[in-house]
């Protein structure tokens, strides 16, 4: 059954937290009678409620026989509120000892996400070479098919891709490479075969693989740096 705690009791618990939450518990805390992990008097006190709350958030450990005051088999803030209700005369009745007396602590796990590093211009040049794009007769070794050359050179190839507009009548693309936007880059459209002008690339050799395209898009979407 869900425990309903009056607002005045909740405010009392908050006030107790402000004063006591940072205080260290007694050495034998967590192993007393039901609802009394700290004190040993005839009934629970606000200090017991505070300790149960500390156990609920993982600061301290406590047996469910002592701190699970509502019989849910899990130590929660509701157990502390139940105790505080007893302390303030708002509620009676505890339900400890229904879960085998396991010691319960709350731990916080941290999940880290590792972002993959963006591809580099060096990675892209390696693909151009592997797919015969930077050879004589195409876009390298002195050739400038479609007014695009220098793809076999680290400096000039980068300048060619980022410094020239699309020279293809009727194309809706403006730039060969648009940093941070692979979808707007004519180069991506040409090698993926979804362009609106001219032929798909490369004309010779094998097409770009899915991995090749991931590298190309990663480089462009990261800013198309010369690295």
Give a summary of the structure in a few sentences.
Helices cover 35% and strands 2% of the residues. It is an all-alpha fold. A two-stranded antiparallel ribbon has the order 1-2.
Secondary-structure map with pairings?
Layout: H1 7-20, H2 46-56, E1 62-63, H3 64-67, H4 77-87, E2 103-104, H5 121-130, H6 154-163, H7 186-192, H8 210-221
Antiparallel strand pairs: 1-2
Helix pairs in contact: 1-2, 2-4, 5-8
Subunit organisation of the chains:
single chain
Uncertain residue ranges? 18-22, 104-114
The overall pLDDT, averaged over residues, is: 78
The count of DSSP E runs of length 2 or more, i.e. the number of strands, is 2
Q: What gross morphology would you assign?
A: rod-shaped
Total number of helical segments? 8
Radius of gyration: 35 Å
How many separate domains? Answer: 2
Which structural category fits the helices and strands?
mainly alpha
């Amino acid at each position: 059954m869900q425990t309903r705690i009056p607002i005045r009791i909740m405010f009392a618990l908050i006030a107790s937290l402000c004063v006591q939450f940072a205080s260290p518990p007694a050495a034998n805390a967590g192993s007393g009678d039901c609802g009394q992990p700290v004190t040993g008097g005839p009934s629970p006190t606000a200090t017991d409620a505070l300790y149960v709350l500390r156990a609920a958030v993982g600061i301290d450990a406590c047996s469910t026989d002592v701190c699970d005051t509502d019989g849910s088999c899990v130590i929660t803030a509701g157990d502390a509120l139940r105790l505080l209700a007893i302390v303030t005369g708002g509620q009676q009745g505890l339900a400890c000892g229904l879960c085998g007396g396991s010691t319960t602590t709350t731990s916080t796990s941290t999940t880290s996400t590792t972002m993959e590093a963006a591809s580099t211009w060096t990675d892209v040049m390696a693909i151009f070479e592997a797919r015969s794009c930077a050879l004589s007769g195409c876009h390298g070794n002195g050739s400038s098919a479609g007014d695009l050359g220098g793809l076999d050179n680290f400096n000039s190839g980068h300048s060619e891709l980022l410094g020239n507009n699309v020279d293809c009548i009727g194309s809706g693309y403006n730039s060969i490479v648009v940093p941070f936007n692979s979808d707007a880059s004519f180069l991506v459209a040409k090698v993926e075969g979804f362009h609106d002008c001219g032929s798909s690339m490369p004309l010779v050799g094998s097409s770009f693989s899915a991995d090749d395209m991931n590298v190309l898009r990663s480089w462009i979407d990261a800013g198309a740096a010369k690295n």
